[in-house]
Amino acid sequence: MIKFEDISFLYWLAALPVFFVLFYYMILQRKARMKKLGELGLIKRLMPEQPKQKLWWKFGVYSLIYILIIIGLANPQVGSKLEKVERQGVDLMIALDVSNSMLAEDIKPNRLERAKRAISKLVDKLEGDRIGIVVFAGRAYTQLPITSDYSAAKLFINTIDTDVVPTQGTSIGQAINLSMEAFEKSKHDKAIIVITDGEDHDDNPVAAAEEAVKNNISVYTIGIGLPEGAPIPTFSNGKKTGFKKDLSGKTVVTKLDEITLQKVAAAGKGIYVRANNTTAGLKDVFDRINKMEKQKYEAKIFSDYEDRFQIFLALALLILVLDLFISDKRSKLSGRINIFETKTSNNE
Predict the structure, then answer these.
(1) Which of 82, 143, 178, 288 has the fewest CB atoms nearer than 10 Å to its CB?
(2) Where are the beta strands (DSSP E) in the chain?
(3) How far apart are CA 136 and CA 176, in angstroms?
(4) Domain count across the chain
(5) Do 293 and 322 share a domain, yes or no?
(6) Domain match, 8 and 135 both
(7) Do 167 and 315 reside in the same domain of the chain?
(8) What secondary structure does DSSP assign to 112-162, as a single string?
C-alpha cells in the first residue's frame, strides 16, 4: 500500500508544461538573436560548445530533478504493518449511469462529471462504511467490489466515463440486481444508491427494487438532470463537434424521467432526490442511510507506514551531481577536440 503524506505538493507537477513553453520560447529567442549576429550556420560553427541538443538535454535532466523533488516533498509512504481491525458501518453500493445521455450539460459541467464529484465527496465522509460501485448503460458491470479502501474507491471513480460500457441504454434493473450480488449474505441492512437520468430504461427496475427489499436492501434513487432536458453532445478526438441527432436530423433532447425513479425508490423502501446545479442530492440520501443499523466486520488495514521521501531526494541530488560532473568533463573535452577544423595539405 502506497500513499502520499501531503498530496497537495503533486499539484506543482502541473507547472511542467509551463516550463516547457517558456524553455521553447527561450530557444526561439536565442535563435533570433543569433540570426542578427550573422549567417546562422557560421555562428553555430563558431559556438560548437553550445549545441541545441545540449540545451534540450539540460532541460530534460532538470525537469526530472524537479519531478523527483516534488515527489519527495509529497513524501511517498509504504505500508509496513498490516493488522486486522474490527469496524462498524453500513454496506453501500453506488449504481452509476454511464450512458451517453449522462453527457448532457443541463447539470454543470455535465451530468456524469457532477455525479462523480458528488460520489467522491461522499467517500470523504465515510467512516467505517464499505462502498462498491456498479456502472451501467445497456448492461451493468462491477467497477469496484465492495471495500473499505477509500483511496481505491476514489481512484476508480476518476476512471469512470461513458466508454466503460459499450452497450447503450439504461438498464436500471440489471444494475440493482448486480449490486445485490455484491453484498455478503446477512440480515443486516444494506443500501443501493442509483444515480441516473432514468431515461429509456430497458428492463423492470421496480421489480428489481422489490426483490432487493426482500434481502434487507433499501434502494435510493437520485435523478441527475432537469425535466426540461438538454441535447447530448458528440465528440471527436476529445473535442465537442455538435449534438446527437435522430434519423430525421432533429437534435435529440434527453429528459429526466422522474416518474420511473420515484417508483423505484418507493418499491425499494428508499427515497428519491432530484439533483440540480446547486446540490447533487447525495447528502439527503446519506443522512437517511446513516440512521440504518451498523454491522460489524473485520478489515485488514495498514497501521504503520514508512517514509520514502529520502529515496527521491537522493536521486535528485545524484542526478544533479552527475550532470554537473559530466557537463564539465564534456566541456573540457570539446575544447581540446576541434571537429570543425579544416585540414590542409602540405601542397597548399
Answers:
(1) 82
(2) 2-4, 76-89, 91-97, 130-136, 140-147, 190-196, 217-224, 230-231, 233-236, 239-243, 253-254, 272-275, 295-307
(3) 10
(4) 2
(5) no
(6) no
(7) no
(8) HHHHHHHHHHHHHH-SS-EEEEEEESSSEEEEEEEES-HHHHHHHHHH--T
Nearest to 208 by CA among 235, 181, 186, 236: 181
Query: 146: which residues sit within 8 A by CB, 6+ positions away?
Result: 91, 93, 130, 131, 132, 182, 183, 184
Residues 25 and 149 in one domain: no
The verdict on 184 and 214 lying in the same domain is yes
* Side-chain-side CA neighbours of residue 134 (13 Å): 29
CA distances from 51 to 18, 30, 44, 47, 48 (A): 23, 12, 8, 8, 6
The DSSP secondary structure of 178-227, one letter per residue, reads HHHHHS-S-SS-EEEEEEE--TTB-S-HHHHHHHHHHTTEEEEEEEES-T
Q: In what order do the strands lie in the sheet with 272-275?
A: 140-147, 130-136, 91-97, 190-196, 217-224, 272-275
Residues 57 and 114 in one domain: no
Q: What are the cell numbers at 245? A: 441527432
Q: Which of 117-126, 158-167, 330-339 has the lowest mean pLDDT?
A: 330-339
Same domain (yes/no): 131, 231: yes
* CATH code assigned at 136: 3.40.50.410
Q: 440540480: which residue's cell? A: 276
| Vertex 213: Cα angle to 208 and 218 (nearest 5) | 95
pTM of the model: 0.64
Cβ contact 117:333 at 8 Å: no
Domain range for 53 is: 2-75+308-336
Taking only the tens place, the pLDDT of each residue in 188-241 is: 779 999 999 887 666 789 999 999 999 989 999 999 988 888 898 888 887 888
Domain assignment present for residue 341? The answer is: no
Q: Which of 184-188, 325-329, 331-335 has the highest mean pLDDT?
A: 184-188
